[in-house]
Amino acid sequence: MSLTQVDLPEYAGDLWQPFRHLAWHGGRGPGKTRTVASGLIIQSMERHERVLCGRETQRSIKDSSKRVLDDEIERLGVGSVFTSTETEIRGPNDSLFIFTGLKGNAAGVKSIEGVTTFWGDEAQAFSQGSIDTVVPTIRGPNSRLIWTWNPDLATDPVDVMFRGKDGPPPNSIVREVNYQDNPWFPDELRMEMEFTRGRDFDKYSHVWLGQYRRNSEARVFKNWRVEAFDTPVGVEHRLGADFGFSIDPSVLVRCHIVGRTLFVDYEAYGLNVEIVNLPALFMSVPEAEKWFMTADSARPETISHLRNHGFPRIQSAIKGARSLEEGVEFLKGYDIVVHPRCQHLIDELTLYSYKVDSLTGLVTSVLEDKDNHLIDALRYACEGARRALNKPAITTIPVPHMATAFNRRAAG
């Protein structure tokens, strides 16, 4: 039996190239696992293949890649030439698919002979010990190792091996594949992806773009997204500035508020900027000199210099007890939309976090004093709106009414 045509994504061509290691990493949705399964099934119909499918932990066959292989055999319509039992799949050319867990099973893996291809799925979970067991075990002529995974941390052994500073092993094909590489990306997944991108960009980057996990329960801001937008004419711009020099940058941010959405459209960022050059840096933000600007009050001499050199509407931020915490909570109460040109603010919103107790590992309520320069500037920019929102309402009762009420009580 032969296959006349099989639809596979373009990157599937890697499977027919000569390699020792094939490493596909990326986010959810490109069909990495199914593509490998289809490719191995087709190749086992072309020649003899003895495929060892391994995962770090396999408590039962349900934890293996067997189900996806069975599904692809059915999808390809080649069930008549494959026999699937409880524990293995046999095919033409005396091909065989077997399944095993790697954790704590070094002896079992080493005892498997004649393997032509190893497929390690969900390889982000592999320990260094498992990798060290598998690689030298698959040692026959022209034998191959295929690794597929959704990256978690840069320190995971599979990422160190293929994406670390020392580079991948010889004769490796390393490719990032994401949902954009899948021509049949399902509408259901697209809706889920777009929702995540709109609400939690850090999670979107990790889950859907395969970037390393940067967020945790300690992350402060989850209410933001990156989105290109045109700033409407006539909005009230709010500007905030924070000052630094060698290690800490001097920054300016411009934003405006519409309803419960805070839009950030421009930023300025510079290290080692002398005070005489700050006006030029801040002028890179359109119309910065025309609007009220609230700046870090710790540098009154800098504020005075800017006021005398093109920014007459600059003023000092009003600091006090819990002004930092209150300002952060105010920002967390809005949906924040950041223009892609504000890359430094994007980085800070991604990294800004609460301190974690080093002994217990629990997240505290104390804000880390790092990755926060543009966030501080954004707090200052919104200070007026925050104070106006928190200003207590005062009800004035006309004096005659008060007098009448008093007279009635007295009379009673």
Can you give keywords for this protein?
single chain; 412 residues; alpha/beta; Rossmann fold; Nucleotidyltransferase, domain 5; 2 domains; eight-stranded mixed beta sheet; seven-stranded mixed beta sheet; 14 helices; 17 strands; 32% helix; 21% strand; disordered C terminus
What class, by secondary structure content? alpha/beta
Number of helices: 14
Helicity level = 25-40%
> Which fold name is given in CATH as the topology of the largest domain?
Rossmann fold
The CATH homologous superfamily of the largest domain is called P-loop containing nucleotide triphosphate hydrolases
- Rg over CA atoms, rounded to whole Å, is 30 Å
Which CATH first-tier class of the largest domain would you pick?
Alpha Beta
CATH architecture of the largest domain: 3-Layer(aba) Sandwich
Q: How many extended strands?
A: 17
What is the chains' assembly state?
single chain
As residue ranges, the low-confidence spans are 392-412
Can you give the mean pLDDT?
89
Number of domain units: 2
Shape: elongated
Spatial ordering of strands, largest sheet: 3-4-5-2-6-7-1-8
Strand content: 15-25%
Cα end-to-end separation: 105 Å
Instruction: Report the sheet with the most strands, covering strand number, pairing sense and barrel closure.
Output: 8 strands, mixed
